[in-house]
Amino acid sequence: MKTKEKLSEDLLELFAEANEEELIVLKQLLAGISQKKHGEKTTYLDGLYNMDIQLKDQECILEIPLSPLLNNPLNIVHGGVIATIIDTAMGTLSNSFLQEFEGAVTTQLNVHYLAQSKGDYLICKAKCDHKGAKTMVLSAEVYREDGKKVAQASGSFFIVRKQEY
Question: I want to staple 102 with a disulfide (CB 3.0 to 4.6 A). Which of 51, 57, 66, 98 is the partner?
Answer without folding.
Answer: 98
